[in-house]
Amino acid sequence: MKALVLGATGAVGRHIVESLIDNHEIQEVHVFVRRQVTFTSPKVTVHIVNFDEPREWAHLVTGDILFSAMGTNRKQAGSKEAQWTVDYTYQYEMARIAAQNGVKKYGLVSSLGANPKSPFFYMSMKGQLEEVILELPFEAIVIARPATLIREEPKLVERISCAVFGVINKARVLMSQEPVKTADVAKVLVTATIGQQYGISIIENEMIHERVGYFKA
Question: Were both Cys, which of 29, 69, 90, 128 would link to 51 (CB 3.0–4.6 Å)?
Answer without folding.
Answer: 90
